[in-house]
Amino acid sequence: MRELLDKIEARQQLVQDTVERLREQIALLGEQLTAAESTLKRLQATRETVLEPAAEDGAPLPEPLPPGYREVLAAFEQAGRGLRARDVCQALDIGLEPSTPRAPAPS
User: Fold this and answer.
1) Cα separation values, 80 from 1, 39, 74, Å
2) Cα 73 to chain center, whole Å?
3) pLDDT in tens, 56-65
4) 8 Å CB contact between 79 and 87
5) For 9, what's the count of Cα atoms within 13 Å in the CB-facing half-sphere?
6) Which of 20, 37, 57, 91 has its CB surrounded by the most CB atoms within 10 Å?
7) Can you tell me whether residue 102 is helix, strand or coil?
């Protein structure tokens, strides 16, 4: 019987340690979420502030970049340096083969 109680106690300690670790992770994620929400609010306010004069003047609002462009810009931003086309393709995981065969160069 003592052996069974020892196993239960060991298991209980293991689960308690897991609970504590998860609570720490939740607290950290909560802090990160709060920071991200704050940044998002600032960016939304900045966008509204920038677009307000354009709307008052009747100027057309700029079109947002399509997703493909945003992904390319994010790759450059993440690299923190200039990239060759090959590096961009690798960063976007789109392959390195040309999409269409190239015509031979005129002689």
Assistant:
1) 62, 21, 10
2) 13
3) 777 777 777 7
4) yes
5) 6
6) 91
7) coil
